[in-house]
Design goal:
Layout lengths: L1 H27 L6 H23 L6 H24 L4
Length: about 90
Amino acid sequence: MKWLLGYLALMSVLALLLCGADKWKAKRGRWRIPEKTLFLVSGLGGAWGFLLGMLLFRHKTRHWSFRILIPLFSLLWLAACVLLLWKGLPF
């Protein structure tokens, strides 16, 4: 369980940093981080961090794809963690 929580924490920090960096770049008219990269990091475990970044930086909150998929990824990861705990699987 420790390695999974560590992995999710690492991915969440990465997603939060990417969200902040993309917002910073957007304000300055610079090269942006591709949306598929943001979705990939979120889908691979960083959804909680990206969700926090959306709230903190008010970034990508108008995009329906982000408003739906990021919370969905968060719920899926939560369900996976609960299922693994419930089944008592070693991970």
